[in-house]
């Protein structure tokens, strides 16, 4: 058994920002950061475009950023939270700059600012086309300089410990469900250990791996959301899965797709269909810079109309110098598969990218479970509503990491360890005889979600998806009860839970709004509020 004052699960921008702040505030207390892979293998690392922030008040304003966010969110944003994030954002961005993050600058020393879909002004700070990687680097360097932060890598969290593990009946109606820590699978010893914590933060990222093709890395399996749901915490708006319009189309690649950042269209890239026609003007007056939900559906429509698996992103009018200055990583990737962007158009197709729903939190990052916070992509703060505005995610993560820190600072002195937690009981379990039982179920899950619960949905597809997920859940739970645990089995179990929550939320929403488009309910005139599961 291990004890820590602050437990942080996840090492992306949300988790590390919070860890740095509590460690600096309480140098005498222990801060433990856990990750199931290496320290920098996070969704943050793969964020290309940049971070949206108003730090040029001569040409931009908080009011404009707030309005852009509300429009993108299609009526479901929490306006108070939007104002908080936009107005507190500049201070948070300055903090990560002070920690060492470098954003591209003009010759006069001012920051270069990009423009992306849904934004009315140029406000996206970036570091080439690897902004997330640069921010993650700066954070890890800062964490490594902090003596009271300990990293545990290659540890898989199995479950949140609550009163349930003390023998009490816990359900959605139970008042004051408390988090005492977590059970974890130590991948080096293959043993289940318990880690007790006074305060726990979930910063476990997204769930893109639920789909067959995603811009997310392999670690994005929705673990935090699934654990909170099992612990009877509140989860909301899971039906709003954002598909990034422009992932690089590679026929032989399944799983992690290479992202072509929206900033390419912000700099003048043009979407064209199979016949070479610029089609976005048919769908929205903002053309290629419409919000992501509109662009993704437009591409999906063109692909179905022409019977193709991709459309084209035309950057041939860019000079090589201009493109490589801002997008060197994309240029090299395209060149590596035989695409010279000055001569060839880039084949692109939508891919699962971001979950706008998640663990329901208040404006201080508190979940419905006491002493358990959530921030970053795994959380539903109310900022994004039905569709996330481009480059708002990194900003949200930093603002809410700070707010979780502020609230946890007030609580840490009032919280104590519960040392009566039983050890994990693995009696009666054996090593699984066939890994294909896990790998095939994962393929089935991803197929079902991609075919039935993608960009466009309908009631029949959702009903089919639910029936198939019910069977997958039943088979996987039997395997979970009888087998010794492995990361593959735990991730499958979590992804099936997340898939169920997405389908359940989509089934409840009898309208089309933002990222959820149901052909049986094409209008959104009757606003359905947040769907809490």
Write the layout of secondary structure elements.
Layout: E1 2-9, H1 13-25, E2 31-34, E3 51-52, H2 62-72, H3 79-98, E4 124-125, H4 131-144, E5 149-152, E6 155-161, E7 181-186, E8 191-202, E9 213-214, H5 223-230, E10 235-236, E11 241-248, E12 255-256, H6 263-266, E13 270-272, H7 292-306, E14 311-314, H8 320-326, H9 328-336, E15 346-355, E16 358-360, E17 372-374, E18 379-380, H10 393-411, H11 436-452, E19 456-457, H12 459-482, H13 487-508, E20 517-518
Helix pairs in contact: 1-4, 1-10, 2-3, 3-10, 5-13, 8-9, 11-12, 11-13, 12-13
Descriptive notes:
Strands 1, 2, 5, 6, 7, 8 and 17 form a seven-stranded mixed β-sheet that branches. This protein has a four-stranded antiparallel β-sheet with strand order 11-15-14-13, with helices on one face. The chain is globular and about 65 Å long. The chain has 533 residues and is of the alpha/beta class. The model has no long low-confidence stretch (mean pLDDT 93). Helix 1 links the parallel strand 1 and strand 2. Helices cover 34% and strands 17% of the residues. It folds into three domains: 297 residues, FAD/NAD(P)-binding domain; 107 residues, Flavocytochrome C3, Chain A, domain 1 (Alpha-Beta Complex); 83 residues, Fumarate reductase/succinate dehydrogenase flavoprotein-like, C-terminal domain (Methane Monooxygenase Hydroxylase, Chain G, domain 1, Up-down Bundle), CATH 1.20.58.
């Amino acid at each position: 058994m291990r004890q820590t004052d602050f437990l942080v699960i996840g090492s992306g921008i949300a988790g590390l920002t919070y860890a740095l702040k509590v460690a600096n505030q309480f140098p005498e207390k222990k801060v433990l950061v856990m990750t199931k892979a290496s320290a920098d293998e996070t969704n943050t690392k793969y964020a290309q475009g940049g971070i949206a922030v108003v730090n040029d008040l001569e040409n931009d304003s908080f009011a404009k950023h707030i309005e852009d966010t509300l429009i993108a969110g299609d009526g479901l944003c929490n306006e108070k939270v939007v104002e908080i994030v936009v107005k507190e954002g500049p201070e948070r961005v300055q903090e990560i700059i002070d920690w060492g993050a470098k954003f591209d600058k003009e010759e006069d020393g001012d920051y270069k600012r990009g423009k992306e879909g849904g934004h009315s002004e140029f406000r996206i700070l970036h570091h080439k086309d690897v902004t997330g990687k640069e921010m993650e680097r700066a954070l890890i360097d800062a964490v490594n300089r902090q003596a009271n932060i300990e990293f545990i890598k290659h540890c898989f969290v199995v479950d949140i410990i609550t009163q349930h593990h003390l023998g009490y009946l816990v359900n959605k109606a139970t008042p004051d469900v408390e988090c005492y820590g977590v059970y974890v699978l130590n991948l080096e010893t293959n043993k289940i250990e318990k880690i007790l914590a006074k305060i726990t933060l979930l910063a476990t990222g997204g769930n893109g791996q639920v789909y067959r093709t995603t811009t997310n890395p392999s670690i994005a399996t929705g673990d935090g959301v699934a654990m909170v749901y099992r612990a009877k915490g509140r989860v909301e708006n899971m039906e709003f899965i954002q598909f990034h319009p422009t992932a690089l189309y590679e026929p032989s690649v399944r799983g992690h797709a290479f992202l072509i950042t929206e900033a390419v269209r912000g700099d003048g890239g043009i979407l064209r269909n199979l016949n070479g026609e610029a089609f976005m003007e048919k769908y929205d007056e903002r053309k290629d810079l419409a919000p992501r939900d509109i662009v993704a559906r437009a591409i999906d429509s063109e692909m179905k109309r022409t019977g193709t698996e991709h459309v084209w992103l035309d950057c041939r009018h860019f000079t090589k110098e201009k493109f490589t200055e801002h997008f060197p990583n994309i240029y090299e990737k395209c060149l590596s598969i035989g695409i010279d962007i000055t001569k060839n158009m880039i084949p692109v197709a939508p891919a699962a990218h971001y979950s706008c729903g998640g663990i329901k939190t208040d404006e201080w990052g508190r979940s419905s479970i006491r002493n358990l916070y959530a921030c970053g992509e795994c959380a539903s703060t109310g900022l994004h509503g039905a569709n996330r505005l481009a480059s708002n995610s990194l900003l949200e993560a930093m603002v809410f990491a700070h707010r979780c820190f502020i609230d946890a600072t007030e609580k840490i002195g009032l919280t104590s360890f519960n040392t009566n937690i039983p050890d994990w009981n693995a009696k009666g379990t054996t090593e699984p005889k066939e890994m294909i039982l896990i790998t095939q179920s994962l393929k089935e899950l991803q197929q079902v979600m991609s075919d039935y619960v993608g960009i466009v949905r309908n009631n029949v597809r959702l009903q089919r998806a639910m029936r198939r997920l019910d069977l997958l859940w039943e088979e996987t739970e039997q395997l979970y009860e009888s087998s010794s645990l492995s990361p593959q089995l735990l991730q499958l179990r979590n992804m099936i839970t997340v898939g169920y929550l997405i389908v359940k939320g989509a089934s409840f929403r009898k309208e089309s709004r933002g990222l959820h488009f149901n052909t049986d309910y094409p209008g959104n005139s009757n606003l359905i509020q947040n769907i809490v599961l």
